[in-house]
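Researcher: Good morning. I'm working through a list of sequences from a screen, and I'd like to move beyond sequence-only analysis. For each chain I'm collecting a predicted structure so we can compare shapes side by side. This is the next one on the list. No need for commentary yet; just the structure.
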Amino acid sequence: MLRPGNRGTPRDVRLTARDATHGWPLGALRYDADVKFYSFEIVIEKEEDDEGYLAYSPTLPGCFSNGKTIEEARTNIREAIQQHISSLLAHGQPVPQNTKLVYVEELTVGIP
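Model: Good morning. Structure tokens for this chain:
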């Protein structure tokens, strides 16, 4: 168990996390002192010529994935982003973190 002031070897810690909307348990999370977390906006779009979905991050050009469902596309883009970041770090390149997606909206216009 990780205790305040206890430093040294990273350990697994069980947390009781809850979904902010519904209050459902999210399960056990892993805490590792050597892990750095990055946040990225992702976009998931319906494929035009397929039943599936395309997922990408505007912050990471060239990093994209897909899936048959939105959930599968989300899982796959997470893995693609992890691999992309690992490659950037392995090659001594910076991980972009400055781009922020401000707002996405569907807009319908009528033309007479």
